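Protocol step 4 of 6: structure prediction from sequence.
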Amino acid sequence: MSGIDIIYGLFANPAAVIGKVSLDRRFNLAFFVVIISVISSSIGWLLIFPWNITPSLFIVILIFRAAFPLLLLFVICGILSIVANFYGGIGKGSFLYAIGCFSLIPYWLMTPVALLLSYLEPGIASSFFFLARLFFFLWAVGLFTIGIRETYVFSQRKAIATLLTPAVVCVFLIVVFVLLISIVALS
């Protein structure tokens, strides 16, 4: 599959394309998707919330905004790979990392959406922009869930469980930590 076919397929028929992409690592295209997602998201943010920044500062912001998702996704995919293997999955974490990068493709639409919203009043535009960001986030999580399912040859239920298990554990640990701190504070 060519790169254009993969990108078009991620928008048109994501389940089929992710199933094919999960079989081979396309890191160069995956990193390209992340970089374009970061650029589009940053430009969209600046269209809705204009700041007075220099072009060199904008480049620095783009570099940090590109490095952070790549590193965060690396950690998340490592944790999810351990959880998926615990649930009996047969995939590899490197494949999941590539799929995680591809799942950020909805953010490519941030600049066109922000451009359309920039013609509205600032308060209304910012409200719709945050709704659009929430929609794109949920879309990316959906693509990532499909990627977990295809990478580890799971049912949809196990893929969702794989995605939610670390979040539930983190919430549980935070609750225990807060309870311990409050017990110590009351003593």
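Step 5 (inspection) to follow. The radius of gyration is 19 Å.
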